UniProtKB/TrEMBL annotation:
UniProt keyword Transferase, yes or no: yes
InterPro entries for this protein: FPS1-like (IPR039702), Isoprenoid_synthase_dom_sf (IPR008949), Polyprenyl_synt (IPR000092)
GO molecular function ontology, one term from the record: dimethylallyltranstransferase activity
GO cellular component, one term: cytoplasm
Keywords: Magnesium, Metal-binding, Transferase
Cofactors: Mg(2+)
This protein's name: Uncharacterized protein
Pfam families xrefs: polyprenyl_synt
């Protein structure tokens, strides 16, 4: 059943991406969004600040960057992490500790999307994201510093995974899934930019653009939920 759910999710997200549709509606089962935001602001952001506490003034910049940019899209974007976990995990596995760790994974995934958004806004010369001014337009140091913020926060995400999940089954797979977001998004966005200069751009390249820019990075969320419950057989190498 878990394998079928994973395949169906990937297929659904692929159809959304290739049809250029946007999903804005929060899932009806996402009823504890307040707990997610509590975890983001009371656990994840303070932990990220702690990781750079030796650098004068930098923890506050990290806090402001993450708080302003995360989530960069819509509340329900990363609910698939919790949804997959709650659907597949046995009841005895769904302890408050594991549910909290699930929310940490969701926050970190939202952060990784937000950091990809910072780079995307720079490339597209965007001014607003989700109704707010982009981070580069309000942060000290402007666009140049914002780009490095995105790299730094992606590094902090990996440190957070080490802090909270290094002893869990599937830790190495989590590292792969979180690195996929900036990696595949970069490939897709590069292909997208090249499309502007190449009149002979093929449908095949366009499919690779969509696959890397949207589908591959988005599908890591559902996979993350499965890894948290230690279901590895449904994740293809």
């Amino acid at each position: 059943m878990a394998a079928r759910a994973s395949v169906n999710l990937r297929g659904f997200l692929a159809r959304v991406a290739q049809n250029k549709e946007n999903v804005h509606v929060r899932h009806k089962l996402d009823t504890e969004i307040d707990k997610y935001y509590k975890t983001l602001h009371n656990v994840v952001i303070p932990d990220c600040m702690d990781l750079v506490k030796e650098i004068p003034g930098y923890p506050q910049r990290v806090k402001e960057c993450i708080s302003h940019t995360t989530p960069s899209y819509y509340d329900g974007w990363n609910f698939s992490i919790e949804l997959m976990y709650k659907t597949v995990a046995d009841e005895h596995h769904q302890t408050e500790k594991n549910l909290e760790k699930c929310r940490i994974l969701r926050a970190l995934k939202d952060m990784s999307y937000a950091m990809a958004g910072i780079v995307d806004d720079y490339a597209d010369k965007g001014e607003y994201r989700h109704g707010k001014k982009v981070w580069a337009s309000i942060c000290e140091g402007g666009q140049e510093a914002a780009i490095y913020d995105s790299v730094a926060v992606n590094y902090l995400i990996l440190l957070m995974l080490h802090r909270h999940f290094r002893n869990d089954p599937g830790y190495s797979r989590l590292l792969e899934l979180y690195n996929m977001v900036p990696g595949t998004a970069a490939i897709g966005n590069t292909l997208d930019i090249l499309d502007r200069y190449n009149s002979n751009y093929s449908d095949d390249i366009w499919k690779h653009t969509v696959q890397n820019k949207a589908m591959n990075s988005i599908c890591t969320a559902g996979g993350t939920g499965l890894v948290h419950v230690s279901v590895f057989t449904v994740l293809q190498d």
